[in-house]
Amino acid sequence: MDSIGFQQHDHSHCIAEAIAAAEERCKAEKLQFTPARRRVLEILLEQHRAMGAYEILEILAAEGLGSQPPVVYRALDFLVGHGFVHRIERMNAYTACTHPGEDHVPAFLICRLCKAVAEAETVLDGGRLGKAAHETGFVIEKIVVEAEGLCPACAETAA
Amino acid sequence: MDSIGFQQHDHSHCIAEAIAAAEERCKAEKLQFTPARRRVLEILLEQHRAMGAYEILEILAAEGLGSQPPVVYRALDFLVGHGFVHRIERMNAYTACTHPGEDHVPAFLICRLCKAVAEAETVLDGGRLGKAAHETGFVIEKIVVEAEGLCPACAETAA
DNA sequence: ACATCACATGTTATGATATAACGTTCGAGG
DNA sequence: CCTCGAACGTTATATCATAACATGTGATGT
Ligand SMILES: [Zn+2]
Ligand SMILES: [Zn+2]
Ligand SMILES: [Zn+2]
Ligand SMILES: [Zn+2]
């Protein structure tokens, strides 16, 4: 079941493309795209869904890339820190960014039944939130938006 | 340090008012506003900040209201489920809703330095997120917005 | 070549958050 | 009364994340 976007699609090229882009960007910014980091990003791209850290770790362990939690958390810290991966707070899970490199406010649509996640595009909210923040003197540095509901498939089943 | 709203204020009346309102609503909706549930809400109102479940539990335990995690998690489930309290995903923490009863999309401003939290008002996003969801057939049931940044006090200190 | 330094990794242990499961209590409604 | 469901008490365990410290490794300057 492919989840992101809630649509079936062949994404073998997404993976190759995204990895190549990440590699290039790391080169440009002198970041070390080490085997563990690369493999974690690959796994998230392959699975194309939100995954828990320990779920990723199992795969790494099976491949001999490390079996202790810090291995995967370090890789995730790097990937999240540089915008290759997003953390989904509601789920304590991680998912590959669907448009890395672009400066964006990630917004997620999370199905409460099948746990599928889609990353939607949003604009930086110039509305009430920004206004409220400005009025109180709060400086917003980062916004996350997470919506819960039913994906098309589950909505149909439930109906 | 009072955090919500990032302003000092006397809120003894907020507490009494909020508790009375909760009591009334529970009566109207035949919900059981039990001692543990009431006390947890009171604690969150008194402290007027985001608190971890175990932090709340310590207070309950000191007062003889229970010492095991399920005690506080059950109370929080009830309070969150009925909108008296919000869970802040980024922090694994809980805070009393500042305008319970009203149907609203909570949005939080979270200071990354002092961890103060303000609940801002937002409107249900009729913008791109809603549009993107509608296009894919996703049914949004609930949205949370969490912004990280610097509160007025910390912004000043940092500057 | 060698020292040095920054960064990444290996490993052990522990901390922090949350829930499963099961038996008991207690009050509302028949 | 009796029954039922909701809340509660208790034990144990699951799940998520980080601290701390030792080790390796490659770039840089001398
Ligand atoms: Zn993204
Ligand atoms: Zn679904
Ligand atoms: Zn609220
Ligand atoms: Zn602050």
UniProtKB/TrEMBL annotation, chains A, B:
Keywords: ATP-binding, DNA-binding, Iron, Metal-binding, Nucleotide-binding, Repressor, Transcription, Transcription regulation, Zinc. It comes from the Bacteria. Zn(2+) binds at residues 111, 114, 151, 154. Fe cation binds at residue 103. One of its GO terms (biological process) is regulation of secondary metabolite biosynthetic process. The keyword Lipid metabolism does not apply. InterPro entries: FUR, Fur_C, WH-like_DNA-bd_sf, WH_DNA-bd_sf. One of its GO terms (molecular function) is ATP binding. Belongs to the Fur family. This is ABC transporter ATP-binding protein. It comes from Pseudodonghicola xiamenensis. The lineage of its organism: Bacteria, Pseudomonadati, Pseudomonadota, Alphaproteobacteria, Rhodobacterales. The gene is zur.
